[in-house]
Amino acid sequence: MSFLERRFGLTAQGTNLRTEALAGVTTFLTMAYIVIVNPTILGQAGMPVAAVAAATCLAAGFGSILMGLIANYPIALAPGMGLNAYFTFTVVKGMGLPWETALGCVFLSGVAFLVLTVAGIRQMIVGAIPRPLFSAVAAGVGLFIAFIGLKEAGIIVADPATTVALGDLTKPTPALALLGLLVMGGLMVWRVKGAILIGILAAAIAAWALGLAKIVPGESGLAALSATAFKLDVPAALHLNGGAGMALAEVIFVFLFVDLFDNVGTLVAVTKKAGLVQPDGTIPRLNRILTADSIATIGGSLVGTSTVVSYIESASGVAAGGRTGLTSVVVGVLFLATLFFAPWVQAIPAAATAPALIVVGAMMIGALADIDWEDPGVAIPAFLTVIAIPLTFSIANGLAFGITAYAALKLLRGQVKAGDWLLYVLAALFVARFIYMGAA
Q1: Does 239 have pLDDT greater than 80?
Q2: pTM of the model
Q3: Which of 40, 299, 300, 415 would you call most buried, defined as having the most Cβ atoms within 10 angstroms of its Cβ?
């Protein structure tokens, strides 16, 4: 029996080395866009783009390999979309925190996630959050990053009379972004693997050819990494150096909870598709999956990137036959190999990456199908969650509105049970947060 057979149980899962390798390549192609998009978003927080690109490759590579070896699941990891936008636009730009402090918050959220997982408290938290709000948060985050994409492309612009308005689509940046969007959409319609990545490169090539962007590669990936690696400021995130303690606690809370939501939603979708869910609905080795994710988040913060999460794009690899952690290991190795191309990421213009945000946001909206819109007790909290996230530029506000509204309506309907105590604790904390924000 070969090492791979012993380690991953290929025969028992009805797969083989060739199938797992093909599945890994498929997953990698569908999510490789993150190597370009993540540095673009975090770069707006003042972080060095080339360094973040290298950190993205390392975090995705390390996390995916860890998932494969620890949990033996075909689930790939990488810095999460939505949380990177929250990191930049809410934490750094909105709250005025240095990106080093924000990385410290990411680190602490990863440690908290690991502790909760090992202690078994994670299951209690998951059980307290209404399932419809998981879907609502996913959709709200989708609208959030799509709105950012439209804004960065110049398709949507600020307007004093109407708040937002349509931009001048004849200008180079909006026109190129629409071209990239068309390429991505067309390729996705034809089920082409790596459609988002190809669309980004097509728009970038057009920008270079028209002289709208310059190809200026920087130093090598590992050399560039020194600008962000171990630059996180944990003492500041712990409020040891002064600052707004409650605000920092909220940042850590959001990183933790959205990471948890991302994982649960992705795990359910991918494991069901792979036929790995038990008859009673449980997911084998769930704690190992979440342990791998939390360690990957800690590692990502150390090298210089936002929260690492499980990627729904892993479903593409499962569709290609991936059934074991070997698929994830292949994805991880490919991300590590991509590290050598990281310096070129800074040559990709916003017009090329903005369409990727729009497309990814559009795909995340599909989570709304899981919500019972006929039930007002579910529909109203879900809607408030979805709409508050993009309009307030804050995932925390969306969570606050959704959980508080759900708890209040459940109380009014007389459906409160003894097991709902944690839900009401969370709702009370969010109400206290609203009061604190109003008094500040």
Answers
A1: no
A2: 0.85
A3: 300
